[in-house]
Every structure is written in C-alpha cells, then in structure tokens.
C-alpha cells in the first residue's frame, strides 16, 4: 500500500511508513500514537511525552540523555501532543544527520532508531514505575502551560470558543489537559496508563530520508519488543461531522483586555475524507484563508474593523473557525460584516479572480510541503486518520477541478454555530458593548 511517495509496511499491528529520498540532509524519525480524546485520559496523555523525554533505562538522567544526543551528532529529540478531530495524538520524534555526510562506519540510522525505540519503550524508572521527581516536575511544568493559556489572548479565545461550540463533545477538551486532573496523577497510575497506551493504541512509525524500506523494517524487527509488535490495537472511534445547528450560541467572556477577540465557529458538515473536501479548502481560502480573502479585504482593509481577520478549517472535525481582533465598541459592526461575508459566499458572490488566486495559493502551499519532512509526515498521516487514500498529486488535481458551483454547495452546508467574544471588564455586564 502506498500513500503519495510513502511505502507502507505492516509489522504485526504497527504500520511503518518510509519516504525514501536523497534530497534531505537529515533523516526524520517519528512515532504517532493515537487514541480518542477523553476527559479520563487527556491530561495523562499530555504528560507522557514530557516524562518519557526525561530519561531512559540506559540514559536515566536528563544530562545523560543530552550527552547521548550529542553523540548522535547533535540529534534533536522531540515529543508533543495535538488534536486531529476527536483523536488525541502523541508524537515522538528524532532528527539525525544523513549518514552520507559522515565518515562514521557505524550506522547512525540504526543508532538513532535504537535510541528512539528506547525512549518509547524503556523509560527511566524507580521501583518499577516512573521516577517520582520527573513526574512531579513535569506536572508543575504542564500546570504552568495550561495556566499560561490565558496570557495568550488569541489562543485563549480560540480555545474558549471551541469549548463553547463543542460543549459535551470530546473536541472541546484542551489538548494539554485539565488542571483538576493533575493532583490525582502519580508515578504509579501514569506508568500503568503508559503501558496500556503502548499495547492498545494504533501506532504509526514514519521515516523520511535517504533510507530504504527494507533496511528500516529489518532494524525495527530487531529493536521493537515482540509483545509490542503483536499487541492487539483498538481502532479509534470518532463521531460523524454532520451536526445541524438549531440556534446560534452567543458567549461573552470578560478579562482585563484592551482589544476584543471575536471568534465565530461554523459547522461545515464536511471532513477530510469526503469528496467535497477540496471544495471546502477552496471555500475557506476565498472566505478568510489568505490576504486576498473576503474577511481580510472587507473586514480589515475596507471597513477597518479588525486588526486581523481570518478563517481556518479543522478538517477531521468539520469545523470552520473565524478569528478577528477588534476594538470592543465595534462588536456589533464586526459581527454584521462577518455574517455578510458568509452570506456573500452563500449567494455566489465569488469572482473568477478569487477562485484563480485561491487555487494558486493553496497549490503553492501544498507543493512547498514537499520540501519539509514534518509536513510530508503530517499530510500522509491525514490520509491514515481519514482512511481515504488521497496523494498530493490527487489533491492538487481535485483542487484545480473545483468549480464555482462546487464551492456554492459547500456554502449551503456551512452553518454559523457559535459567536464568542472576549472583551474587557467595563460596560453593562449583560451587554456585548
């Protein structure tokens, strides 16, 4: 099976994806573990990548770990969590030098893969569980990260609007977890959860660089524990993206801010696996994805109502979100003019120039991804998560074939769901301005 230029091989219940190319000066190794977003696990999941990067069985301290990375010619180790629709993804990765640029006789690729596998499967422990000091320190860091969200008003408004829009849905959860969960997490229950994740969550291993699939499979067959390879992995269930809006929700939050943040969320009823997805990308691009889009031109430039105004798509959840920064007293005007842009899309007020510019800009964005290993992995992983094989050439061709009537069909499906406004503490507490 192949997606784009990746060769996919199954090793037991683990999928290995290899992109063989000589154009990169580094080799990128990445492991993805996915599960359903859930309040029961979201905070433990967010904590795990940080704890696992603190030390391994062979390199139990942070200092020893850093020395090992230096020995691997300055390799870069990373780990994080993010959302794709209602899936919570843990990513672990390592970037190492391309062996062809080294005089070393020993295989740097094998050494790198071995090290990454150890980070993933042989963490530093004490008394058979995670090191208590590491867990406590990473809990404190995660607590600070969650609390600091409010310091970044753009990100805070985006998260709050999603929480309100998707209330009682898994997607409402913040990908870095919840403060109230942290006191109950300890080395024992986190380690037990870690073992469950390794043995039950779908796992995808990515390698991008001057490598061959055969050598990667041979190396991983030696490095990955047999019980991990043969473990039964549960598919992740996610809900359908069709969600009819009965009434538009209006939510106002008040903080000590000088500039208002106006976020509007729409249900598109379309996800990345649907045939209408290329037309949805075009719809978003014309509405607010780029500097030539309607939101930027009409809300920011012509009406001077916003410091910024744009839109974006969450393609696995089927959401389109509009973000803008406005003067607090301009709330009503800004809402009205943004609604006018949605109506203009629905009414077919789309020029051939807008279509042509948007096709060119989207195509350029995707083509640029071919030069970045992480973007290659991300694009391919979209296909894995959606279950629909769509290579980059396929998508580029589909975008080029999108007609105005296809965009109008998308516009008919888009429904405004939530208007969220973050404003100052002044004024009438029941008023929006």
TrEMBL record:
GO molecular function terms noted in the UniProt entry: metal ion binding
**Transmembrane ranges?**
none
- Residue intervals of the Peptidase M16 C-terminal domain: 185-360
InterPro entries, A to Z: Metalloenz_LuxS/M16, MPP/UQCRC_Complex, Peptidase_M16_C
Q: Which domain of life is it from?
A: Bacteria
Query: Mind telling me which Pfam families this protein's record contains?
Result: Peptidase_M16_C
NCBIfam families given for it?
YfmF_fam
According to UniProt, the name of this protein is Predicted Zn-dependent peptidase
Please give the organism. Answer: Thermoflavimicrobium dichotomicum
């Amino acid at each position: 099976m192949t997606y784009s230029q990746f060769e996919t091989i199954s090793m037991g219940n683990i999928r290995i994806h290899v992109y063989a190319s000589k154009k990169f000066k580094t080799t990128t190794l990445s492991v993805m573990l996915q599960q359903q977003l859930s309040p029961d696990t979201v905070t433990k999941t967010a904590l795990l990548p940080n704890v696992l990067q603190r030390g391994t069985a062979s390199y139990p301290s942070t200092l020893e770990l850093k020395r090992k990375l230096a020995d691997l010619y300055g390799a870069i180790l990373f780990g994080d969590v993010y959302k794709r629709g209602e899936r919570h993804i843990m990513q672990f990765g390592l970037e190492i030098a391309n062996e062809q640029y080294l005089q070393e006789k020993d295989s740097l690729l094998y050494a790198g893969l071995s090290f990454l596998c150890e980070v993933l499967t042989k963490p530093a422990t004490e008394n058979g569980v995670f090191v208590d000091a590491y867990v406590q320190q990473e809990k404190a860091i995660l607590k600070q990260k969650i609390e600091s969200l409010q310091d970044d008003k753009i990100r805070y408004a985006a998260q709050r609007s999603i929480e309100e829009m998707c209330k009682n849905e898994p997607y409402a959860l913040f990908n870095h977890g919840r403060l109230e969960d942290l006191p109950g997490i300890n080395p024992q229950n986190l380690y037990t959860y870690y073992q469950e994740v390794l043995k039950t969550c779908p796992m995808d291993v990515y390698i991008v660089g001057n490598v061959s699939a055969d050598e990667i499979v041979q190396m991983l067959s030696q490095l990955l524990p047999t019980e991990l390879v043969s473990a039964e992995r549960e598919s992740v269930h996610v809900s359908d993206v069709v969600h009819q809006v009965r009434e538009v929700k209006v939510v106002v939050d008040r903080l000590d801010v000088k500039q208002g943040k106006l976020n509007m969320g729409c249900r598109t009823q379309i996800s990345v696996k649907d045939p209408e997805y290329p037309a949805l990308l075009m719809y978003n691009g014309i509405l607010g994805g780029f500097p030539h889009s309607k939101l930027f031109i009409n809300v920011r430039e012509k009406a001077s109502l916003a410091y910024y105004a744009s839109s974006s798509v969450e393609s696995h959840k089927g959401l389109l979100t509009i973000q803008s920064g406005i003067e607090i007293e301009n709330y009503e005007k800004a809402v009205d003019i943004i609604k006018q842009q949605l109506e203009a899309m629905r009414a077919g007020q789309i020029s051939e120039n807008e279509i042509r510019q948007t096709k060119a800009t989207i195509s350029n964005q995707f083509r640029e991804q071919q030069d970045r290993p992480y973007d290659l992995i991300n694009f391919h992983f979209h296909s894995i998560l959606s279950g629909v094989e769509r290579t980059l050439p396929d998508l580029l061709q589909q975008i080029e074939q999108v007609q105005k009537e296809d965009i109008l069909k998308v516009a008919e499906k888009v429904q405004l769901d939530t208007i969220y406004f973050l404003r100052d503490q002044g004024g009438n507490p029941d008023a929006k301005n």
